[in-house]
Amino acid sequence: MKIRVMPTVIIAIVSASLLVGGWFIYQNVATVHPLERIVAQVPGVLEAKPVVSNDAVTVDLTLRKDANLRVVYDTIATQSQSIIGTRELKLAINQDSGTKQKELNEVWSSNLFDVAQAMEHRNYSEIPTAMKHIEQNYSGVQATSEMDETNVYITLKNGDSAKYIILPRTPDQMGAWPNA
User: Fold this and answer.
1) Angle CA(162)–CA(101)–CA(149) in degrees, nearest 5?
2) Residue 177 domain flag
3) 180 within a domain of the structure (yes/no)
4) What is the C-alpha to C-alpha distance for residues 73 and 93, in angstroms, rounded to an integer?
5) Which residues are within 8 A (CB) of 25 and not within 5 positions of it... i.e. 6 or more apart?
6) What's residue 65's pLDDT?
7) Which of 107, 135, 155, 165 is least surrounded by CB atoms within 10 angstroms?
8) Range(s) of the domain holding residue 69
9) How many domains are contained in the chain?
10) What does the pLDDT read at residue 177?
């Protein structure tokens, strides 16, 4: 029996295109479009574009100046839980690049050590103190911090510019004792 090459190649191409096309349509209809609708309704969100991968859902966001970062994250996480499933939710927040934004970046860089130390030692109560320190040392800068069970949310504002930072909390991990 002789296999014909041309019909076999055509069937392979058609099958592959149907599989890839079906996966692409499913990906858009079942995950991306519902996520776009959910995120568009979140208060404080100007623009959003979700990107879905096998292990994470990353949402590129542009936020209003008055947006509450913890509320935005929590709303997206709870309303899209059925779509996200076990994937990790990540927010990629677009920051403007004006002179006020550069000042906020410098403020954050100069105070990063205090926040990093509080996060490393899990002394989360030191973070609001660091935010008060920022407000006292930099005129016109408003610094707020909030926390939930998964992240610490920091917002720095100066005039019309805002810098949003999400710091993941890592729970204590159990392990075997080295001498056991």
Assistant:
1) 40
2) no
3) no
4) 11
5) none
6) 82
7) 135
8) 5-93
9) 2
10) 46
| Backbone φ and ψ of 28, nearest 5° | -75, -45
Which of 95, 91, 87 minimizes the C-alpha distance to 60?
A: 91
pLDDT score, position 179: 41
pTM of the predicted protein model:
0.78
Q: Per-10-residue mean pLDDT for the chain, 180 residues long? A: 85 92 79 88 90 89 89 92 90 82 90 90 92 92 92 90 89 49
- Same domain for 73 and 25: yes
Using an 8 Å Cβ cutoff, are 107 and 138 in contact? yes
Looking at the fold, whether 61 and 106 belong to one and the same domain comes out as no
Dump the DSSP string for 125-166.
THHHHHHHHHHHHSTTEEEEEEE-SSEEEEEEEETTEEEEEE
**Angle at the Cα of 150 (from 149 to 155), degrees rounded to 5?**
100
- Return the pLDDT at 172: 52
d(CA 180, CA 177): 5
Asked if the structure places residue 178 within a domain, the reply is: no
* Strand ranges across the sheet with 56-63: 45-52, 56-63, 88-93
pLDDT value at residue 171: 58
**Separation between Cα atoms, residue 45 and residue 75, nearest integer Å:** 11
Cβ atoms within 10 Å, residue 102: 11
